[in-house]
Amino acid sequence: MPAVQRHAVVAGAGIGGLTVAVALHRRGWRVTVCERAAGPAAVGAGIVLAPNALRAFDTIGFDVPRAAGRTLPAAMGLRRPDGRWLSRADTAAPAARYGGPPLALHRSALAGALAAALPAGTIRYGVAVTSVDHAEGSPVVRTGSGDLDGADLVVAADGIHSPLRRQYFPAHPGLRHSGETAWRTVLPAAASRAETVTAETWGRGERFGVVPLADGRIYVYATAVAPEGYRPADVRAELLRRYGSWHDPIPALLERIDPAAVLQHDLYDLAAALPRFHHGRLAWLGDAAHAMTPNLGQGGCQAVEDAAVLAHLLAGAGTEDLPAALAAYSAARCARTDAIRVRARRAGRIAAVTHPLAVAVRDLAVRATPARATQRAMDALFGGFTLPAGTDTVPTAVGTRW
């Protein structure tokens, strides 16, 4: 480790920003996290950490279940609105093949656990990073609360609408609307056993998902083909109109929804890949680097992978070596994240078809897909995370997860 403690400024306290902050802190860096929000998010929805993200957390010595709860393997799959299964699987298979099953928990629980792993005062709320100057030499971080200088590294984890991405890639086409909008919320503990089954139901241009969380609550989400900016006046009435006649337990879940706690967001991804994830001593990660639609559940997972790889490549690098380490980070992450971004876009197009004939063909194709083809697809996601060659080691002991 270098004799002089290095300083990293992280723009954004989302899952990716907090993960890279923890990873760098555990490798001896002094870290400052600037977050535009006035405080920790009090609301939010669920997140499913796939085995690849959990392995990435292992490399930084962060035990997610110990910090934020645990869950047990359960059946999961795809259904039709009438309740018939299109495909079913058991998370015991990923557990055996990839080291553990997925973990579903509330985003705020994960964010809180990550924040608690940082020294007091690391996160500066109400401080929005607007630009970074002199990234090729000694970066100067511009914020609405004044400038921060003396940073050896700046990490742009500033989200899907990243100001720093726009600053350094002005010719990039930016975001692409997927043609869908999404509603998300978290309900109190399950009222029936049917609500504890993880499933996503596909209709005509509409989907509904149910995911039990580690703390016993139920994460529900829905998507629909809709114009950009569409916002119904009555959220519950809109959801009941679209999904109220679907199979149990969807109608009962809709009746329990608090409209004030429902988040609605249009779905976007990057229209094209960024040419690189670094510039001088500035690096991008998560949605700022490779925003993708949530169709594969990999947006947050890839941000965690980014953080693990970035911290790994920076370990032991001297100040003059940082640009080369960030170039290696781009080389390690660009191809994988873009392949997943494109794959998520294609999956969304298939799931969102609206013509009855196209829906029938889609459903038949899902039911007829051989298990070995599904396994290959999962291998690319869950088994595709590796750290580049290097001398880094896990900074703290990692306990047994399951």
Describe this structure in words.
The chain has 402 residues and is an alpha/beta fold. The protein is built from 13 helices and 18 strands. The strands form four sheets. It has a seven-stranded mixed β-sheet with strand order 5-4-13-14-15-12-16, sandwiched between helices. A six-stranded mixed β-sheet has the order 7-2-1-11-18-17. α1 packs parallel to α10. It is globular, with a radius of gyration of 21 Å.
List keywords for this structure.
alpha/beta, 18 strands, six-stranded mixed sheet, disordered C terminus, about 400 residues, seven-stranded mixed sheet, FAD/NAD(P)-binding domain
- Number-wise, the strands total 18
Computed structural class: alpha/beta
Measured as a percent range, the helix fraction is 25-40%
Please give the order of strands in the largest beta sheet. Answer: 5-4-13-14-15-12-16
DSSP helix count?
A: 13
**At the fourth CATH level, what is the homologous superfamily of the domain at 7-72 and 103-175 and 272-351?**
FAD/NAD(P)-binding domain
Largest sheet: 7 strands, mixed
Task: Say what oligomer this is.
Answer: single chain
Any idea of the CATH class of the domain at 7-72 and 103-175 and 272-351? Alpha Beta
Low-confidence stretches: 396-402
Taken as a percent bin, the fraction of beta residues is 15-25%
Distance between the termini: 32 Å
By CATH, the architecture of the domain at 7-72 and 103-175 and 272-351 is named 3-Layer(bba) Sandwich
> What characteristic shape results from the CA principal axes?
globular
- Mind telling me the C-alpha Rg? 21 Å
Q: What do we call the CATH topology of the domain at 7-72 and 103-175 and 272-351? A: FAD/NAD(P)-binding domain
Name the average pLDDT. 91
